[in-house]
Amino acid sequence: MAAAPEPVDPAPARAEPHDDANWWREAVVYQVYVRSFADANGDGIGDLAGVRARLPYLRDLGVDALWFSPWYPSPMADTGYDISDYRSIDPAFGTLEEAEQLIAEARALGIRTIIDIVPNHVSDQHPWFREALDSPPGSPERERFWFRPGAGAEGELPPNGWQSIFGGCAWTRTEDAAGAPGEWYLHLFAPEQPDLNWTHPDVWAEHEDILRFWFERGVAGVRIDSAGLLVKDPQLAEETAESGPGEHPFTDRDDVHEIYRQWRAIADGYAEPRILVGEIWLPDAERFARYLRPDELHIAFNFDFLACPWEPDRMRNSIESALAAHAPVDAPTTWVLSNHDVTRPVTRYGRADTSFAFESKRAGTPTDLERGHRRARAAALLAMALPGSMYVYQGEELGLPEVEDIPFDRRQDPMWLRSGGVDPGRDGCRVPIPWAGDRPPYGFSEAGADRPWLDPPENWAPLTVAAQSETATSMLSLYRAGLRLRRATPALGDGSLRWLPSADAVLSFARGDDFACIVNFGHEPIELPAGTDVLIASNDLEGGALPQDTTVWLRQANGEAPSWDGSTRPGLSKG
Ligand code: TEU
Ligand code: CA
């Protein structure tokens, strides 16, 4: 038997529900990937009219806010993360006026709107980059980007060895109108996404203005794309294996924090303060937490939890270290199981190795979807019970699996294209949402519409919203019930947790005076503590015991002593 984990946070539970200004500390935020959500005009691409029509669905699901992946005009080299105009809406999605209507309509249903801001790079069709290409080396127009002469006798080699996150060289050589080669420019992602130079005052001023533009249209906050990458080493030093904290040439450099302090001041300037959500992939929890200091970002995605394998000790460590890292800056932790960049949880958790890593996505390895589905259900109730806020990616609530057999000629993701097919890409988690009916596209578009931009599989009829709404045991019913209970349970949301003694294969924690959550990862069904009522379980109990890969929420029965505080050890003794 392993020693019981120490209590992680002795702070008292939150005394009263948070006031409205702190909504984000415990919000459930639903990520809308507009292109794949709902297609109202039948061109095979999801749009804002489609989202507006489905707002009641989102209200009934019980989410507090929507985060929209980029909806701006874009050549779609990276499905919208290559923006050519930050103050408008792509015509495929709708109009600015529709976006304003959507923001207002959602708010009338109690749902706030968060938009995606991409400050690291712009589209190569953005006017600034077009001007830069049309201007000579050394011109002010080029200063807003990272143009450099090449190395080698003829400038034929890239300025340094940095590699693109999407694979291949991070530099592309320019040509003038006559086809003569010239300077190179930096792109940490695709060549269609040139990096901005964040030492340039225009870049700062432009983004501050973009923030105000959208805040004044009623958005409640922004999700900041690639938030740790904005600042580059001006010397363009090579990456080395042993760079210390803040020394990497383009990740997590100390100067980046100054940008977010400035943005925080803007966000705080509104009567209803706006919030800043960081997309930051950093293994170092302490460096990560620096972004969440009181005058910087409000919150950032906890990718460690997303990437964590479905194993009790690893999960417990991930949860503990996240809570411990967030506590000193008084920022709430987020609980994220999926987004538009990663393998769907149902698939991930069905593999022998249940972790997530960009470098090894294990596409095509044996996958037990039934087991993955069961674990994804257990993970959902775990995430909903943990202290802080939760982010749900569209389709997660339907238990959609990763689509792994998209024909090569249909795949669009630059990760797939630029890796020469080595990386399966991210299209498999971006397939259109199935709403109703027996056949693709399952109500994503109406009958007679154009083919959807990615085809939903032939076997998704049982996964539609309509089908799952009819079934009490569906993933959708679990998300609806779990989110409803989460909202109705004062001990949940923001606050702290107390670990309870349990067997190695079990996670068990209490929140508030009368709530406990138990997850059983092990083969043996475990007895539940005496004197408790089951609020919800991710799968059926077996003769009153909690089976493998199942999460249960318990409430202390009326008038009973708190039987879980030391007196019972789930998995070790009878309750
Ligand atoms: O993702 C950022 C991103 O891909 C990196 O943080 C990367 O995943 C990480 O460093 C891996 O080591 C965002 C968006 O979510 C994604 O869809 C975009 O393609 C990307 O930025 C470029 O805008
Ligand atoms: Ca459409």
CATH homology group of the largest domain: Glycosidases
Helix content: 10-25%
- Total helix count? 15
How many domains? The number is 3
Can you give a write-up of this model?
The chain is of the alpha/beta class and 575 residues long. The protein folds into three domains: 20-120 and 197-233 and 251-482, Glycosidases (TIM Barrel, Alpha-Beta Barrel), CATH 3.20.20; 127-186, Oligo-1,6-glucosidase, Domain 2 (Oligo-1,6-glucosidase, domain 2, Alpha-Beta Complex), CATH 3.90.400; 497-575, Golgi alpha-mannosidase II (Immunoglobulin-like), CATH 2.60.40. 24% of the residues lie in helices and 13% in strands. It has 15 helices and 18 strands. The protein has helices spanning 48-53, 55-61, 96-108, 127-134, 140-143, 201-215, 256-268, 285-290, 303-307, 312-326, 345-348, 369-385, 414-418, 465-469, 475-488, and strands spanning 28-32, 65-68, 112-117, 147-148, 171-175, 181-186, 221-224, 275-278, 299-300, 334-336, 389-393, 498-499, 506-511, 515-520, 526-527, 532-537, 545-546, 550-556. The strands form four sheets. Strands 9-8-7-3-2-1-11-10 form an eight-stranded parallel beta sheet. The chain has a five-stranded antiparallel beta sheet with strand order 12-13-14-18-16. Helix 6 (201-215) runs parallel beside helix 7 (256-268). It is globular. Residues 1-18 have low confidence and may be disordered.
